[in-house]
Amino acid sequence: MTTRDSHIFFMRRAIDLARRAWGDTHPNPMVGALIVEDDEVVAEGWHEKAGEAHAEISALRALGRKPRAGATLYVTLEPCCTHGRTPPCTSAIIEAGIAHVVIGATDPNPAHAGKGYELLRAAGVEVVNGVLAEECADLNLIFNHWITAGRTLFAAKSGVTLDGKVATRTGDSKWITGPQARADGHRWRRLFPAIAVGAGTVRADNPRLTARVGETEYCPWRFVFDGLLRTVNEKSLPSVYTDEFHERTIVVTTQHGGLGYVRKLNSIGVKTWVLPSSTPKVNFGDFRARCTTEGITGVFFEGGAQLLSELMQGRELDYLLVYHAPVLFADEKSKGILSGLRTETLANAIRLERVKHEVHGDDTLMRGYVRYPEKMFVDEALFNRKGYSE
Questions:
Q1: Which residues contact 11 (CB under 8 A, 6 or more apart)?
Q2: What angle do CA 23, 27, 31 make, to 5 degrees?
Q3: Among candidates 338, 227, 336, which has minimal Cα distance to 279?
Q4: Beta-carbon neighbour count of residue 155 at 10 Å?
């Protein structure tokens, strides 16, 4: 292999190592590292969770000896150069005598970006950076946003037909996408610290809102948006309020929902966030601020269409994942993925940036960062017609 090919080969292995901690490192990034001597991998490591050894340290410990002369360290993210919960990795690399360091993505923190390279080079270490940089950065959508924007990432997922529909005119939607796409959706659930749905989805589908990956079921924080607490005013409570994970459920509501229902939820171990609002609609800005204060770095919204539409209308959605199935309804009365805007020209359209495409069985996933136009017109009549409690 050429030097470039070998760098790509070993960096892909480092990316695979980083993914072993998928969803476990918040608020830290996922990072993978490996040590190569004479074109052979002799040690591997990855960051398992916040407070534990960084990937570079894990790889050095796995080696269990001093690296041979000319050894190369591959790492998916620029080594840290400041002392946090753990000492800086740049110092450990220099002390170990590593001769070459090949790096994927640059530290997204503007205060640190590039400084790790400078310290290593100043110590005589040969540094190659930017190898599979985009793929390495893509590992850490949530962390990158948390560091650069200083707030929680709001992402949303939906499964749609080729003509952009999420349900037939009668409400039938199970299942538009196939089993492989749905399994990938659970993988994304596993990544995020929290999942969010509207009251309508809870009342219609009684979802479990857990990530089921292989034989393991993982429960993140589960947010239910219910401005009038209609999910509580039921003969039988939904499973997210009664199952073994019910203490991981947070109902986001307003003062219009009634303190009696709030007390009922709290009495059975379900948490509530009562956010101020002049209407039964929860303000997404207030919700995001509360998530940020609580240290919840990312929220994965799974619908329904009304909740996602209001996120978009309020310019609050940061990232969107859409699974397209090879299905057509061709029915104007079937339910679309998004609504509520008056988009009269392409210049006023919402677009995705840094787009990724994936194939899952017969379905395709398109995902990317949401870019809003300078001028965006909300259909006020439609916007005010329904709230989250619907």
A1: 74, 76, 102, 104, 131, 132, 136
A2: 65
A3: 227
A4: 26
The dihedral sign for the CA sequence 347, 349, 352, 357: negative
* 210 within 8 A of 218, measured Cβ to Cβ: yes
pLDDT in tens, the chain (390 residues): 678 899 999 999 999 999 999 999 999 999 999 999 999 999 999 999 998 999 999 999 999 999 999 999 999 999 988 766 677 899 999 999 999 999 999 999 888 899 999 999 999 999 999 999 999 999 999 999 999 999 999 999 999 999 988 888 888 788 899 999 999 999 999 999 999 999 988 988 899 999 998 889 999 999 999 999 999 977 789 999 999 999 999 999 999 988 899 999 999 999 999 999 988 889 999 999 999 999 999 999 997 788 899 999 999 999 999 999 999 988 888 888 888 888 888 888 899 999 999 999 999 999 999 999 988 878 766 555 444 433
Residue 3, classified by CB atoms within 10 Å of its CB into exposed (0-12), middle (13-18) or buried (19+), is exposed
CB environment 99-138: b (16+ within 10 A), e (fewer): eebbbbbbbbeeeeeebbbebbeeeebebbbebbbebbbe
- Residue with token string 């259909």: 379
Is pTM, for the whole model, over 0.85? yes
Closest CA to 284 of 315, 248, 306, 322: 315
Amino acid symbol at 68: R
Q: Kindly name the residue from 44, 56, 302, 310 that is annotated as catalytic.
A: 56
Query: How far is residue 307's CA from residue 284's CA, in Å, rounded to a whole number?
Result: 10
Residues 6+ positions from 301 with CB-CB distance below 8 Å: 154, 155, 156, 157, 195, 196, 197, 307, 308, 311, 317
Give 20's Cβ-side CA count (13 Å radius): 14
37 is catalytic: no
Residue type, 361: G
Q: Which helix (H) or strand (E) holds 166?
A: strand 165-167
**Residue 20 CB coordination number (10 Å):** 13
Sign of the CA dihedral running 386, 200, 361, 29: positive
Other C-beta atoms closer than 10 Å to the C-beta of 217 total: 14
Q: Structure tokens of 41?
A: 């991998």
